[in-house]
Amino acid sequence: MEEMSVQVSVPAVVPAGVAAASDLREWLARVEAIGQLQRIKEEVERDEEMGAITYMAHQTINAPALLFERIRGCPPGFESLWNLIGSSVDRFAISIGEPTGLTVMDLIQRCKTKFSRAIPPVIVNGRDAPVNAHHMIGDEVDVTIFPAARHWPGDGGPYIGTADAVITRDPDGGWLNVGCYRQMVQDRNHVGLYLSPGKDARLHIERYWSRNEPCEVVAVWGVDPAMFIAASQTFPKTVSELDFIGGITGRPVELVKGQVVSLPYPARAEIVMEGIIYPNAMKLEGPFGEFTGYYGRPEDFAFLVDVKAIHYRENPILTHALMADYPANECGLLYSIARSARIWNDLDKLGVPGIKGVYCHPAAAGGFAMTVVSLEQRYAGHAPQALALAAQVPGGAYFSKWIIAVDDDVDPSNINQVLWAMATRCHPAEDIDILRQTWSTSLDPTQNPPEERPYGSKALVNACMEHRYLKSFSKRTRLRRSVYEAVAAKWQRLGFRATPPKLWALED
Questions:
Q1: Mind giving me the DSSP string for 202-238?
Q2: pLDDT, tens digit (0-9, with 9 covering 90-100), for 320-344
Q3: Which of 114, 132, 164 is the last residue of a domain?
Q4: 440 confidence band (pLDDT: 50, 70, 90)
């Protein structure tokens, strides 16, 4: 294979006030304009090689998204996009219609606002929908023509659904759930759908099956990043993520009516599958290299989707999300920002005052395992209250193990400051509590035997100054604000190329 160069981030060129991209292709054009798209023109193998290239290229922060243009065994023009967002703050910003050059905490606050609004989808004429350029229906269906891939050598098979969006309908309330769930190719017209216990789509399927009814499903295999962001997060079970995608982008999601099932599908997607999960239809699936940096559960039974139809654009792009240790983990930064915003919104709704920031660190199993809450302590028990609620709100309950509270002079996104607060403000014997029998995941390798894995525990770490001694607590060293501002004003003249760092703790 030809030597491949990996590009790094260049100065921001996407201005404020630009609307979110209308689809994946418009998003790709914007990403390429800021130098964060690497086109791989050398022919590659679909199994393991694309995953290896992505893992190796993404050992550095801000590595580009990778678009593989020639994949052995696939029709000409069929492409594969890996790690859409990766560890790039700028690519996340473009995904939600924000300017590049923002900090991660800036994006969390903007995401927090966008997650608070809902714009319902609209049905449009399917004749003009880009995704309806080509169809495979009934006996014509062949999922193997798309560049599904084994990401890791131990994967149970090629995976076509990783950076995806899966749509199901609640059998009682009728709302549409959109989730991000993996799908392994079983044969030409079947995929295995893995769903962790408690996930919305699984609850839907189980309720249909309890009535001896099939469950319809739509899978978007070439997904635009805004839909991917929303699909990967936990929203209330009685509302549709489609509404929140509209809130993120500032426009309604365009849907077209299904041609085989009653579910609609996105008009501007790259590839869409319509399928049915018949009662008790299961087949062995997995393992799969997961966001923990380990293979998930051993091979086990998963829901078997009978693929009834596939619709796809001209020269379709299949999106992949590599699950790995950070920074090569596609869900790392994405989950960090989106999950942080969700938890912060949940705390606001519960009336917890004084929250200054929330951050789920990406290196902690893709943002799942550690949440840091920064707050201004206003009353006795304030920090323990924030800890207990952040651990169990809908946006943060799944899998989280370490929930840490820090004072408002600590930037929750700066792990060095968080560790400093834990070292100087936390008394382990007094300031750590444990919650037991909480919602975990079958993907947690620390829970053994494996059947125990849905039940976990959480450590609540109070790394705030002790409230009763706030006035007498040791005084922190801080820069004087006037001196900081004077230095920041001449930062470049001093010979530094980057912008001056933002500091949370200054002396007025």
A1: HHHHHHHHHTT--EEEEEESS--HHHHHHHTS---TT
A2: 999 999 999 998 999 899 999 999 9
A3: 114
A4: confident
